[in-house]
Protein 1
Amino acid sequence: MTTNGTNGTNGASPRPKKLSPGVYCPTVTFFRATPGQELDLELNARHFEKLARAGLHGIVVQGSTAEAVSLTPEERKQLISLARDTWANIGNPGAIIAGTVGAQSTGEAIRLAQDAADAGADFILSLHPNYFPAAMTPEAIQGFFEDLADASPIPVIIYSYPGVTSGIVMDSDLILRLSAHPNIAGVKHTDHDVGKMCREMASTKKSPDFTILAGASDYLLGFVAVGAQGTITGTSNLAPRVCVKTWELAQNGPSPEATRLAGLIARGEWTIARGSITGQKYATIVAQGYPLEAAAARKPILPVSAATRAHVDSETADLIAEERKLEKEGYTGSALSQ
């Protein structure tokens, strides 16, 4: 098992104890076009490299967008190690986050956290158990996260996502209690509740190392306005530079350029959300120039439909064009200049 302050792969570089503000990408996972749909390690590495070079502040591997529920424990470790090595080779110091570590028991979640640390992750992003929703009282959820954080060799990020946890909503009181734990680094709000983020930002001044992140970017100017410190957004798979530039511009208020870029992001993110996981993957391969077969999710999820492809092509064209313009100009986010 590794401990805070060491690299899980080779012990060579210190791990961050605080989750830095910024834009993080919950990456998609690419599979080979074979009957077994094995991991396409070459294409995944290529994608990790593109995201690192764009100057994102970190990457979430094996999150919801990455189809984590379909990955084996060994595949999870492979992807974390691959991301760790790829980002190190590029020289991007951003955080490697192991996503969707949560399990249906505390013991299994702890085991997954240990695996993630051993593979080189800096943080874990964890859902709470939800199979027996009536038993998941605020007290039970608090106990789960505190036990996980006590045992995890790397800091925990709370994943607030009612859509995949039987509709269970973690209120601000619960999140603020958890923010006091020394090994809980922050929260990802995929409940998309800007009011909740505002309350928590106003109430966590005694926990300065607790980072509050949005779970999307289509309301980027809104969450920045209330003080939230960044986002974990799937849109950064296809437009990482646009997402980072918009976030950086927004630090100085909603300028006309920030508003223009935020509109492109909001339009693109709505389109991706309507297409679900295959729409997200298809948009990513179009933007990044990957082969069409890479859009396939693991079975039994069906291939992306012709209607979804046409809709994505139409509605993300302006966003992708802006991304390519920024890339041609040599723009990179601030993470690479640290």
Protein 2
Amino acid sequence: MFERTKETKVLRDPIHGYIHIRYRVIWNCLNSREFQRLHRIHQLGGDFQVYHAAEHSRFGHSLGVYEVCRRMVTEVDSIAGALSESEKIAVMAAALLHDLGHGPYSHFFESIQDISHEERTMRIIADPASEVHQALTAEDEKLPQEVIRILKHEHQRPILNQMISSQLDADRMDYLLRDAYETGTSYGTFDLERVLRTLRICDDMLCVKQSGMHSIEDYIMARYHMYWQVYLHPDAKSYEMLLATFFKRYMEINEPIEVFEPLRHPLSNEEFFLMDECRMMYGFQCALNSKDAILRDFADRILNRRLFAWIENPNEDQIRQLEERLKDRPYYLIEEPEHKGSFLPYSEERSKIWILTNRNELKPLSQCSEIVRALLKMEDVPEKRIFYPKDIAIH
């Protein structure tokens, strides 16, 4: 029997109204220093440079994912009845802790440290020295490994894996609504209440009643539009390119800035804990006094939003002009790593959203939805952008 808090803890939230915490282990994980660190990590990387209100943190998002998951295991009768209390605790803890490994500016940080945020998260949870590990083992010594199995998508109960990471999971359901709200856009909105109301469990898999299919279609399109209007915004990417180029230059020169020196080698968990955006900003301020003109310039651009211009899918003549004009400034023509242009809103290659039909049959969403069938025919066309200083004019 897992110990409950003396009373239900509630935290006000702009998306879910209230976050409800009833178990001591969840409350203790929330109060661990590793989780509190997420206050100091932006949820949306460089998007706050475009959408000025997008200052929300990984902390708020992680709480939101927990709340969606909590509602799944307590309010969806078929799920609540299929899981034991320990399984509910494990999946709620996984929801809360799934982003512990995010570095400064979220996904950007993975480009300068050769470790994914998922792997870092699991290392923190497994580390006996971490407060979050201690909070979990205080309830059940096996709980850290149960949480890690869910995060690795290796738990013996497929439903637990799906609730955290799948085409229809608590993570996406929170970040779409939260990011839309914080950016002041409407692209990411969908009917969360209807989705939750029509969720079911069948053959230990998450599925949706056929009557809820249209809400799932809205959810899929919300994700598609958010990627192109918010997550892949070229000015947000320009900011992240400045960050990446700053650190590329820093690693190539022999001029130490104390707060950045740990980045020259793989970070320990303790070093990672200290690497937050407050530290980054202080480092950029220090770099304004660097002897290196390139480092000074990029620090100034980062701190004062002097973004590069950009061209999407440049032609050969545009590339030739820029290469000629910037031949003596090698850091000032940046090509973004190629991404898929259409960013397909839905794919069934790795996982599917399952529909429980009116005949009580389990079918992939694509077999039930005309809209999704059309979406699956979209071509995955690679696209790229190049970035360069705005004072360089090209024809």
Protein 3
Amino acid sequence: MKGLLLLPLLLLGTVSALHLENDAPHQGRGETQADLRQDLEGSGDQERELALNDELSDAFVDEEAMESDQAALDENVECPREEDSVQMQASTGGQTCTYVLVRKRRTFNEAQTICSTCYRGNLISIHSYRTNRFIQHWTSSRNQARFWIGGFIRHWILFKTFHWIDGTRWDFRYWAPGHPANGSGRCVYMTSRGGHWRRTSCQSHLAFICAV
């Protein structure tokens, strides 16, 4: 009976995922002015609703991870050693921000806990191509290939909505070709090669960037 109930959901997810793949920007071909306008102006709505597809096992694992006991994480937090982190100040979006790249790999929830407890900040939210480009160059110069940013999917059933963990507006995105439809998991990471975003399980262990 469960199999019969899941079949329509999986079919719905397949159709919606294909539609979303066609809508996702393919910036790997080089950044043109049209690409940048699409990212800066049309970034919020196309991938806000992402239908359920066939990654149900990842969904339930991540759901549990995102709702884990925050008090336990706070109690057991271990702040990074100085040699495991790199700080940088930069003026992006008209304001000066301090970013901390933590090389020691953590899950998404553990990374956010370290950002809030150790640095009184959050995993970074990115709201412009300029900031994204800066983070790409900075991490590339530090030989850091992949790292968490603060994007995550709030809901799994039927429709998925992207949010920033610091509560700011989801008004920019820079997905890798084929993403987010072809990804799995509900948390977002960035690559220094191309600066593109992908989604993966929140239980993955990655380096991360805090915005202080």
